[in-house]
Amino acid sequence: MKATINDVAKLSGVSIKTVSRVMNNEPSVRQLTREKVQDAVKELNYQPNLAARNLAGTKSYTIAYVYDNPNAYYVIDMQEGILAACRQQGFELLINPCDSQQENITEEIISTIKHARVAGLVLTPPFSENPDFVKRITDLDIHVVRIMSGDAAPDELSPCVMVNDRDAAQTITQHLIDLGHNKIAFIAGEAEHMSTIERYKGYRRALKANNIDFNKNLLIEGEYSFESGVNGAKKLMSLDNSADDRPSAIFSCNDEIAAGALFAARLMNFNIPEQLSIAGFENSPFSRQTWPKLTTANQPNKEIAKNAASLLISQIRKQKSNHEISQYVPQLVVRDSTGKV
Amino acid sequence: MKATINDVAKLSGVSIKTVSRVMNNEPSVRQLTREKVQDAVKELNYQPNLAARNLAGTKSYTIAYVYDNPNAYYVIDMQEGILAACRQQGFELLINPCDSQQENITEEIISTIKHARVAGLVLTPPFSENPDFVKRITDLDIHVVRIMSGDAAPDELSPCVMVNDRDAAQTITQHLIDLGHNKIAFIAGEAEHMSTIERYKGYRRALKANNIDFNKNLLIEGEYSFESGVNGAKKLMSLDNSADDRPSAIFSCNDEIAAGALFAARLMNFNIPEQLSIAGFENSPFSRQTWPKLTTANQPNKEIAKNAASLLISQIRKQKSNHEISQYVPQLVVRDSTGKV
DNA sequence: TTAGAAAATGACAGCGCTGTCAATTGTTAA
DNA sequence: TTAACAATTGACAGCGCTGTCATTTTCTAA
Asked: What CATH number did the domain enclosing A234 receive?
């Protein structure tokens, strides 16, 4: 029924040990032998038994996805991408939801990792942005791949898959500017999130590129929540119009904030986008469920995650990764919440 | 470092086979022996090695969560609940996202199940509502627990954890009636979903209990989408007011529809809740991010899932389940989208 | 009390693979 | 051509557990 290593060995006329070598990409197998074995593997549709591998070997074929993210859509996409890579490469995935604020969370995760003999971790924010945490893990000789905001890896601790929020934010801001806006506010997410910083940088860069002076009254320090968007927009739209302070456009650090801003604008009887343009970021499902629908930026999370997991598995296997993309730039999605001034 | 069955055997002075028996709740172990072993297990903090178990035994210690649901929040909650049960009972979880519409999906799932030697499945809608699918699986002697809408299991194919949407829908409708509404519309989800049927029944039952005639103009057959809510509400709010047809309240089959209805009402310049009350169902995160916030019904998905998974594992182990709750009634959450007529 | 049956326990093989190390084959340089 | 070495391959043990079956202990009834 299910082929074992023995069947492959017989069919290809070598010992099981040699088959094992081929399956693990070990060197010192003659090319000819390797091909014979690979043919047999294909013919029998052989897949190594994970349990046996784990039991017999010192190596591990399990990676983990450790997450703490309030955005379920993000998590699901990431997870499915990682899962796809695992399937492809015969790895197992351990899902580890947790609370990054919890006191001994690092110890707890390390304990789980050890117990389950995890070979590597895929990390997304906030974990991926915590160098101390990453260092603790890599010090254990556990491989890590981080998915994070930025245009280049911040350190050498682990390979990174970068999401260039800065360029994307610049594009969004430019879109607003092209629409004729020059009083563009920015409602930030948590200041300690890399994504906030990057998106802010993109915003500033766009202003500068267009010779628009930055007005610090138009910067709201908020957090990634609907509530924060409501409060931020209220504050902004209460600014003195004659003093040239009240914005004609708001760039919100994510869609949730943007939805809040929309809500507040509505409360204050501003028409969107006639009197006020609002842009979000992330292209979360509810950016299509606001009124009007949000202009935002989209990133291919599933693909990013699959790539990151493949990279991780290559690292674990000590193969060189086959030139995967390691930087993604979210793309502008224009919908109905932004318009000409 | 990590204790093995051997360590336990030595410490408790019995053979490893006996320890194995205790670990697997097998009969024919004297009570005294069992206790000795359990003490040693506790002392050494012993946990059986899953890989070895899988390799050696014919039994499996893996269950799978097969899902296809567009609602990421639902999926994440379910998954985390199942995961919690697995942790507790030393089982492994295989996550299997898939597309229920895909042609050979049943075959594909069966193949995965066999390959991974899965002992049982947790099923949520739409899979849990497909008796043919369930039968295919149970015929393979694979255990199944279904989570579904209703007040009692529809058949004997598998144990079920029921979510009593009917009672909850009745409560919501009653809430509307208590607010003084008697022209209450219903925007349905897909007619083939059990949840739609159940919620509709609850709606009708509430009307009947209050001697309110059902007006079929107020029933919109839609689907679980924002779009559908928009269209449904537009249609409803265009009804002739003098003909006594236009509703003063809309009960939407879920929050997404309700959000759409809200959107449409806004477009048509109806004030919520002064001129129109709108209620949703599901308590999804964006029910808090609409304007105004949605009145809805909440169900403890994580708890439900944990319970279902525990039940499944008990079945697999042939232990009697310890009287778990098998019916949940979602609870009314009153927010700002419903008000007095 | 004791044979006979039932209950409780243990010895041992082996699940499918990898690690170790020995055996074989191929290659190089004198 | 051959010793010396490197590359390739294979034999075998054993990972931690469970299934089978034999053995020991306990219980029952005459």
From this structure: 3.40.50.2300
Is residue B121 in some structural domain? yes
The reply to whether the CB atom of residue B56 sits less than 7 A from any atom in nucleic acid chain C is yes
What's the CA–C1' distance between A28 and D7, in Å? 7
Q: How confident is the model at residue A322 (pLDDT cuts 50, 70, 90)?
A: low
My answer on whether B242 and B94 are in the same domain is no
Residues at the strand D interface (CB under 7 A)?
A 13-18, 21, 27-30, 32-33, 52, 55-56; B 4-6, 16-17, 20, 23-24, 46, 48-49, 52-53, 55-59
Q: Are residues B36 and B123 in the same domain?
A: no
Write phi, then psi, for A196 (nearest 5 degrees).
Answer: -60, -50
Cβ-Cβ contacts under 8 Å, A115 against chain B: 2, 47
Instruction: Clarify whether residues A83 and A231 are in a common domain.
Output: no
Confidence of residue A320 (pLDDT cuts 50, 70, 90): low
Q: Is B215 inside any structural domain?
A: yes
DSSP state letter for A154: S
CB B233 within 8 A of CB B260: yes
Mean pLDDT over B187-201 rounds to 96
No. of H helices and E strands in chain B?
12, 12
The closest alpha carbon to A282, from A228, A224, A330, A339, belongs to A330
Neighbour-count burial of B335, counting CB atoms closer than 10 A to its CB (0-12 exposed, 13-18 middle, 19+ buried): middle
pLDDT of residue B39: 95
Which phi and psi angles does B12 have, rounded to 5°? -95, 0
The verdict on a CB contact (< 8 Å) between B76 and A80 is no
Judgement on whether residues A101 and A118 belong to the same structural domain of the protein: yes
pLDDT digits (tens, 9 = 90+) for A155-206: 999 999 999 999 999 999 999 999 999 999 999 999 999 999 999 999 999 9
Test mutation, B291, B294, B335, chain A, max A CBs within 10 A: B291
Q: Is the CB of A57 under 7 A from strand C?
A: yes
With respect to residue A319, please indicate whether it lies within any of the assigned structural domains: yes
What number of CA atoms fall less than 13 Å from residue A80's CA on the CB side? 20
Do residues B152 and B93 share a domain? yes
- Report how far residue B324's alpha carbon sits from residue B161's, in angstroms, rounded to the nearest whole number: 9
Task: Tell me whether residue A108 is in a domain.
Answer: yes
Residue A134 lies in domain: 62-163+301-330
Strand C nucleotides, any atom under 7 Å to a protein CB = 7-20
Rounded to the nearest 10°, the torsion over CA A14, A16, A19, A23 is 180
Confidence class for position A97, pLDDT limits 50, 70, 90: very high
A225 touches strand C (CB under 7 A): no
Per residue in A210-219, pLDDT (tens digit) is 999 999 999 9
B91/B157 same-domain check: yes
Residue nearest to nucleotide D13 (CA to C1'): A56
CATH number of the domain where residue B33 is located: 1.10.260.40
Number of domains in chain B: 3
Does one domain contain both A282 and A175? yes
